[in-house]
Structure formats: structure tokens, C-alpha cells
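Entry 12.
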Amino acid sequence: MGAFAVTRRNRVRRLPEKASYDELAVHAVLDAALFAHVGFVDAGQPVVIPMLHGRDDARLYLHGARKARIAKLVGSGAPVCVSTTLLDGIVAARSAFNSSMNYRSVVVFGTGRMLEDEGERLVALRVISEHVLPGRWAELRPPTARELAMTAVIEVGIESASAKIAEGPPQDEAEDYALPTWGGVVPVATTLGRAVDDGRLLAGVGLSQAVAALEGRRL
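Predicted 3D structure (C-alpha cells):
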């Protein structure tokens, strides 16, 4: 692993001291987030759509309906921007100007490619499934031919990226520390809760190992 070259496209301009171009840092945020926002241009109009994703080395996989516009545009080789953010805290400073958030974010630039080979498609779908529900793929029946025909699977090569990480207490103006105002951080944690069955389980069917392992997981 190395670092992404810093270019005009991925350079962090606002608060550059919080930026990281390290591949491992970028991958860590992508792997922790359950979904990402995918940006593309449709007839001159910028569009951003939230999508499930999965990462395999320097490739992101996205999936959606075969007839969806993102499948037709991004899958045909259009440039794409993928971003995700994990919120870790609300930073309550002694001024509105210095109040902010603690977060981990990533912006990825790449080019889309529609996967047509069935083997590639199944690998990518498994990567996406395992990203959200590790171990669940092995507990499920295989996708049917009809399901595969209805599903578009897009590969986005990570050509360029940057991470931005903000953490720690507020950074107030020196004179503001003399104010009788509380300053600090309110932590924000996304933790997966207890699984609730759909009320249609067969007799004797208990919570699966993969789903049970998710309970209490913190992103």
C-alpha cells in the first residue's frame, strides 16, 4: 500500500491538515461505512444517489436495477465521484464559528464499468453482501437467473482519493477560553441494535450466526 498522488482533483483545500491521501486510511473509511453517495452527471445535471457498496482492493462495487439511469450512465464508462462520511461527534465550541463536527470522510474519483461476465458479477455481489452482512452470503440461497438479469453490477476503479478526518476537542480563540461557556464534544456513535425477526420464521429457526454477529457492532 502507498498513497494517492495529490492532484487538483483530490486535493483537500479546506483544513488541509486534516487530510490523508494514504490508501489504508481511505480504505478504512470506505470499509467502515455501510453505504456511500455516488455522484455523476446526467444530461448536464449533477445527480447524487445513496448506494450500497463493497470494496475489493482498489475497486469499488455498486449494484442497482438494470434499467436505472446510473447503470446506463456510470456503467458505460462515465466518470464518477463516490463519497461517504461517518459522524463521530458534535464539537460544541465557545463560538458558533468554531463549533463543528468530528468525522471520518472519503472522496473517491474513478470510472465506471458495467460487469457482464456472470462470474465477475457474482464475485462483486458477494463483496457487497459481505461488506454489509459479513458471513451472510453463505447462509443464503444463490441468486436466480432472473434476479441476476434484473441487477446491474458496476465496478469503479479507485483512480484518485482523499480522506479527511476531524477529531478532538474544539479549537477556540484564545480569548474565548475566558468565557463562562461550556466547551467540549458530544460523542455520536452508530451502533447496530438487536435483530428483530419478520414474524414468519419456520419452527425451530433461530438467529443466524452472521446476523447475530452484527448485534452491538459499532461503525
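Annotation: The domain at 16-174+183-189 is CATH 2.30.110.10 (Pnp Oxidase; Chain A). The longest strand covers residues 151-166.
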